[in-house]
Amino acid sequence: MYIKLREYLYDSAWARFLTNGVTLMNLSCGILSFYFALHGAWEHAVLAVIIASVLDNIDGRLARSLGAGTGFGKDLDSLADVISFGCVPAFLLYEWSLRHAPHAFIGVAALFYVICAALRLARFNQGGSKNSSHLYFSGLSSPGATGFCIFPMILVFYSDGVSYVSPWVCALVLTVSGILMLARFPSFSLKNLRPLVGRSVYVLAVALLLAWMNFWLFMLMVIGLYALSIPVSMICVAWSRPKGESS
């Protein structure tokens, strides 16, 4: 049934409508995050960003699976990502922490992050953020950078012993995340990695179980594993590079 449905939708107007609809859901989650933040509902605001990152992964997979990739869809996806993974994390950390700093100039870190996210997504649209193997991004992906940005907030949500994170720490996280988005090191592209396709149902079941047991701890683990994957991806690329090839 799935195969027949896929064949029916493949490269059709309905397929493009579906993938673009998921992209707009990503954008909507970003706008909802703004709304929750303005009302002080920080956990809901972070959850909306997390859902946006999941939707961002889904729309790309749908586009490739259904042959629905278009220039319009690619540009719409990047515009949605600028909001959800550029403006939103910067706004969240500014409202949650930076604006309480004694020095107003610290807020420049939020502006710097948004600029870096916009530049990275523009580079992605020009094809400059993908490694030739298609398994890696060049630099940190914008959803990955967003994960790093919301890490201090999730840490507070999870830990009873941590109730405050210094604005200077949040400013540093924004600045470093912005720089990593523009850097040229290889990082795994989750949209193209398929080592667990045959076990995807079991992986999803385990992930849902862990998230149900303690969602914020689960998210800390996910972000931590993603951070650890960066040096691993750099090592993998270095090993796969032919001897004598310059970096």
Question: What does this protein look like?
Answer:
With 247 residues, the chain is mainly α. It has helices spanning 2-9, 13-38, 42-66, 71-96, 108-125, 142-158, 167-182, 200-213, 215-240, and strands at 136-138, 186-188. A two-stranded antiparallel sheet has the order 1-2.
Derived from helix and strand composition plus strand pairing, the structural class reads mainly alpha
Number of helices: 9
Strand content: under 5%
Q: Strand order, main sheet: write it out.
A: 1-2
Largest sheet composition: 2 strands, antiparallel
Give unreliable regions as ranges: none
End-to-end Cα distance: 47 Å
Q: Gyration radius, to the nearest Å?
A: 19 Å
Helix content: over 70%
Key descriptive features of the protein:
single chain, 247 residues, mainly alpha, 71% helix
Summarize it.
This protein is an all-alpha fold. The protein has helices at 2-9, 13-38, 42-66, 71-96, 108-125, 142-158, 167-182, 200-213, 215-240, and strands at residues 136-138, 186-188. α6 (142-158) runs antiparallel to α9 (215-240) and α8 crosses α9 (215-240).
